[in-house]
Amino acid sequence: MDDVRPWWNGLRQGGDGLSVWDTGCPEDLLRYVSFKSVELPKDFTVHSVINRHINGRRERIANGNIDWATAETMAFGSLLFQGFNVRLSGQDVGRGTFSHRHVMLVDQTSDQLHIPLNTLSEKQSGFLEVANSPLSEEAVLGFEYGMSVATARTLFIWEAQFGDFFNGAQLMLDAFVSCGESKWQLMSGLVMLLPTGMDGAGAEHSSCRLERFLQLCDSNEDGGDGDWLNWHVAYPTTPSQYFHLLRQQMVRDFRKPLIVAAPKTLLRLKDAVSSLSEMSSGHHFQPVLGDASVSAEKVKRVIFCSGKHYYALADKRKALGHHNTAIVRIELLAPFPVTAISREIAKYENGTEFVWSQEESRNMGAWSFVSPRFSRQLSIQLSYCGRAASASPAVGVAKIHQKQAEDVLQQPFRFTLR
User: What is residue 388's DSSP assignment?
Assistant: First the structure.
């Protein structure tokens, strides 16, 4: 390993506590990156869908409503400007499974490939590599992990076509990614993007099996989690949070694998947008997002959740007119952000009911991870609201799915909780 050690100079192993890093960027740089990301070479002919994508991105930059794909592009481009490289692999990642990314474009007449982020500047030293890989998860993830332990100057990202496709690479996760640093003192900054969501797609395209990644954490139920954890697990709800997560992987002075429960429906949800200022200099990833839409002194019930489920809960609260209910988002599940959660709980002096709400079944998702930690570290006994335990991640019948989804949203607002 002597030949790779120079790449790791100046880095350390993760320590105690959760460190905070300024991962924001000047707004002018973010605008520049965004406009350059949809700039085409002369006489380059793109598909009509790409023209809509280009116009849409320019419009979003103009009105300040930054969506998920634009925030990702800003993260990539800003890292390239700083001299880091980015490598993105997975099936159809250049376009994106949900046709949202489009970081690799194809000339419709010549089949020539073009990656706009590689033409940001004549002097740029960081570049984006896009590897549209086959559905051979074990081989591809193993290769990406091996690359990630060889250099700390590249952000390696593997995106599953759907979140549960990681199961084809379970051996790599169990024997290498989750424990490589513990076994061999080899750090890795590999990012795994796992699209997830109980959207009616059936058993095999819904859950990213968040519970498995949390179970593989060396987190302590009694407290003491810090940067040292074997890998970090996040379920962000906004484009700006995702932006900061990606940049944090390279900006901080240690490397850890990052598991991101990535969105599907949020990619185009009108409410799931961020302002440019949220990604500007002086800002950073927040492990917990509080609820500024309610008066803290009036709150009787606090609902904790993660990920896209937040938006459905917020809509249901509005429809029911529950002004005494707060919804708090746990954006970082591991390391468990006990201090940030404690600060949020302290705001609700009149709160008497505390709920964990999730889309997944009781034996899945984050419930079995968060429940003992709330109890032992915060002295909070959470009530569970979600689907009942199930052998399958999701049902395959649309009517049953819709009935379950409505029940999951009703549960947290009922006066008698189970």
Answer: P
Q: Kind and range of the H or E element at 327? A: strand 325-330
Query: Considering only CA atoms, which of 287, 284, 236, 273 is closest in space to residue 25?
Result: 284
Q: What pTM does this model have?
A: 0.95
The mean of the pLDDT values for the chain is 93
> What is the per-residue pLDDT across 64-114, written as a single tens digit (0 to 9) for each?
899 999 999 999 999 999 999 999 999 999 999 888 999 999 999 999 999
In the chain, the amino acid numbered 242 is Y
Q: Is the dihedral of CA 316, 238, 159, 98 positive or negative?
A: positive
**Cβ neighbours of residue 228 closer than 8 Å, sequence gap 6 or more:** 13, 14, 15, 16
Query: Cα Rg for the chain, rounded, in angstroms?
Result: 21
Q: Is the peptide bond before 335 cis (omega within 30 degrees of 0)?
A: yes
Token readout for 202 is 């059936």
Compute the C-alpha angle 329/335/336, nearest 5°: 50
Asked if residues 205 and 162 have their Cβ atoms less than 8 Å apart, the reply is: yes
Nearest to 80 by CA among 46, 114, 41, 30: 30
The amino acid at 159:
E
